[in-house]
Amino acid sequence: MSDYSVHEPMHAHLEMKLERTVKALQANRMDACWVRTKEEALAKVREMLPKGAVIASGGSMTLDECGITALLRSGDYDYLDRAAVKPEDIPALYRKSFGADFYLMSSNAVTEQGELYNVDGNGNRVAALIYGPDAVIVVAGANKIVPDIPAAIKRVRCLAAPVNAMRLHQDTPCTKTGICAGIKGELAAGCKANQRICCSYVVSGFQRQPKRIRVILVAENLGY
Ligand code: SF4
Known about the structure:
This protein is an alpha/beta fold. The protein has helices spanning 9-27, 38-48, 61-66, 68-72, 90-97, 124-130, 149-167, 174-177, and strands spanning 31-35, 54-57, 78-79, 102-105, 109-111, 116-120, 135-141, 145-146, 200-204, 213-218. The chain contains 8 helices and 10 strands. The protein has a 6-stranded parallel β-sheet with strand order 1-10-7-4-2-3, sandwiched between helices. It has a 4-stranded mixed β-sheet with strand order 8-5-6-9, with helices on both faces. 39% of the residues are buried. Residues 157, 161-162, 165, 172-174, 180-182, 190-191, 193, 196-198 line the site of iron/sulfur cluster (SF4).
């Protein structure tokens, strides 16, 4: 359980940031709310998913930590689980994901201006975020919230991408240094490694389709 308490100034400050970010996401036509704990996030996701729904997801530590991946594997849903198929069948599963009722993922960063910032290697996750599944549910810890896009870019290069590359045992410069080789370059600057995990850079701002993207922010640190 979280030790969250609104009576402590740091938590009151966090609550203001969460409120500010939720309002900005809503102004960009995303459905958005915040909850205090990962247990509440799990309950919220369960409420949103009708039994039998076709669901796909991006690989996410946040979804694992909240118990959402386990929920998807409970048998209550038609979950397109990439962990349950052979490596050669994964491309077909990714294509099938575009027809899912729901796509679940986290976000590499969420800005206080109401934007999602995501960087992919394969691109299947950002592709599904942009188009395909009827609805996208994004669950993100408060540690993912940054003031603006420049801060989001920095967050990915200095933390999210290097740590994810380490988790996935990729042979990239950042797994040895802890920081992106392109830290001083433009948006897409980086390494030339075969296993580079940063290839497609997506900012989700104002949405043409209201509430297709539904963001649940959690007042805890989750994922990287
Ligand atoms: S571009 Fe390469 S070095 Fe930079 S964070 Fe991505 S994988 Fe690491």
